[in-house]
């Protein structure tokens, strides 16, 4: 506070003029670095020291304790709410935080040092968690206020998903051999099937979804999904595949919580008896045939500006305001919105040997008129090298009012198997009406072999008229 009092009024005015706004001219970020006291407690030690905590009687941490851990969860898709999950070499635990969109500052793979003094260990559903003591709360604990959490949880370096690897298991029953070693850790179950694969969805509109997955040994576990998750309405995949998530435990019952739709991967697309809804059996395996995260650059995409005002030097551009980066489109400059039509186009993707294919991506839309969310942000596909384009309509759009990335959900490309395709993200704006579109994690998966589909869709011109 003393420092703030010494800042002159002219300096404050200049800072206000150039206040941080999520745009291209944002200053380069300095990699966060923790310079405080060394860690002096592990998650396992924290659990042991506070074993007497109960739901009604939490234990307040009164001594100076520093915990070093890595974040494994993400609230990006809305399936995890006001919680983060952290782990170290000794264990994992949940932390209650009173904030949405925590992942924008504390992403998966972020190393943090938490000053535990003044926080508490409480119990919910028979399991310990880190929270804050609140005498006004009927349950004696509450989520840690965002301001306090940011003071307590200091980042060290940039967070990246590759910083944390899941425990890979092909036998679900393994987790019962030593529950403390697995609970609340990031795990991946391989070779599993959904009981309602190809028929059910992850969650209904008005309640949590609970779907069973079964491994090749006959063991099962519940996959629990919030109806607020961006992928709640996605159809459960068929066949065998891999599921990654936070392995929770509630009153002695295991449950797996997915972070995003990307935690479901490599499903074969056919059931155990062989055959899909049409009675046809794909003969090959499902694999990723194209992937571009945009984490560090534009990748294998080209940009075509059909319409761009002379006042603009670009519409689509790689941005790394967050780490990792993404592609970003905007026709807003110097408080003015300009008309534009700019395309971000993939390289050629070969589906000639595929029997089915799926497109997924993550995107965010903000700073505009929500009326134009769908009409000004178009995803199209071409199988004639860009001569004609067909709009893809069956995917999830963001709300258009914040920076939250949401998953598109699985977009069926089976109509285009047997062809070589290109994917395009078309950004449009009007004079006086523009917003910002951010795209990342573009992926096309395909089942190689089997029967192929036919043509279909609505054809649009490659160069729309103004």
TrEMBL record:
Pfam family, one: DUF5689
Span of the signal peptide: 1-19
Entry-linked InterPro entries: DUF5689 (IPR043744), Sialidase_sf (IPR036278)
Organism: Phocaeicola plebeius
Region of interest: Disordered: 265-285
Organism domain of life: Bacteria
Gene3D superfamilies listed in its UniProt record: Galactose-binding domain-like (2.60.120.260)
Location of the DUF5689 domain: 39-264
Name of the featured protein: DUF5689 domain-containing protein
Keyword Plastid (UniProt): no
Keywords annotated in UniProt: Signal
């Amino acid at each position: 506070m003393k420092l703030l009092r010494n800042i002159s009024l002219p300096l404050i005015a200049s800072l206000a003029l150039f206040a941080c706004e999520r745009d291209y001219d944002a200053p380069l970020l300095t990699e966060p670095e923790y310079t405080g006291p060394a860690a002096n407690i592990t998650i396992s030690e924290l659990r042991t020291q506070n074993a007497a905590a109960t739901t009604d009687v939490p234990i307040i941490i009164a001594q100076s304790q520093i915990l070093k851990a890595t974040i494994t969860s993400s609230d990006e898709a809305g399936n995890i709410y006001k919680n983060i999950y952290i782990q170290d070499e000794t264990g994992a635990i949940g932390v209650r935080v009173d904030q949405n969109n925590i992942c924008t500052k504390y992403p998966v793979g972020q190393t943090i040092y938490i000053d535990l003094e003044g926080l508490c260990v409480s119990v919910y559903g028979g399991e310990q968690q880190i929270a804050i003591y609140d005498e006004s709360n009927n349950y004696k604990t509450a989520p840690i206020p965002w301001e306090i959490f940011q003071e307590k949880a200091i980042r060290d370096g940039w967070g990246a998903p590759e910083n944390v690897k899941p425990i890979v298991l092909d036998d679900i029953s393994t987790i019962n051999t030593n529950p403390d070693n697995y609970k609340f850790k990031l795990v991946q179950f391989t070779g599993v099937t959904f009981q309602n694969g190809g028929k059910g969805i992850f969650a209904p509109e008005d309640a949590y979804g609970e779907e069973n997955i079964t491994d090749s040994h006959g063991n099962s576990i519940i996959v629990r999904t919030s109806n607020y998750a961006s992928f709640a309405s996605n159809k459960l995949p068929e066949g065998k595949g891999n599921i990654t998530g936070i392995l929770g435990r509630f009153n002695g019952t295991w449950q797996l919580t997915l972070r995003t739709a990307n935690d479901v991967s490599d499903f074969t697309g056919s059931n155990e008896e062989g055959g899909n809804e049409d009675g046809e059996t794909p003969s090959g395996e499902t694999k990723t045939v194209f992937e571009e995260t945009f984490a560090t650059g534009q990748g294998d995409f080209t940009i075509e500006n059909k319409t761009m005002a002379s006042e603009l030097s670009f519409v689509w551009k790689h941005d790394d305001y967050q780490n990792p980066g993404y592609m970003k489109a905007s026709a807003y400059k110097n408080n003015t919105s300009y008309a534009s039509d700019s395309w971000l186009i993939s390289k050629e993707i070969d589906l000639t040997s595929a029997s089915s294919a799926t497109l997924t991506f993550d995107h965010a839309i903000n700073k505009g008129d929500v009326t134009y969310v769908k009409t000004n942000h178009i995803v199209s596909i071409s199988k004639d090298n860009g001569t004609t384009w067909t709009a893809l309509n069956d995917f999830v759009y963001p709300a258009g009012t914040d920076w939250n990335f949401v998953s598109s959900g699985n977009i069926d490309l089976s109509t285009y198997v047997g062809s070589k395709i290109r994917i395009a993200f078309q950004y449009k704006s009007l004079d006086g009406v523009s917003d910002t579109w951010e795209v990342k994690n573009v992926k096309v998966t395909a089942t190689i072999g089997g029967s192929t589909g036919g043509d279909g869709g609505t054809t649009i011109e490659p160069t729309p008229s103004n």
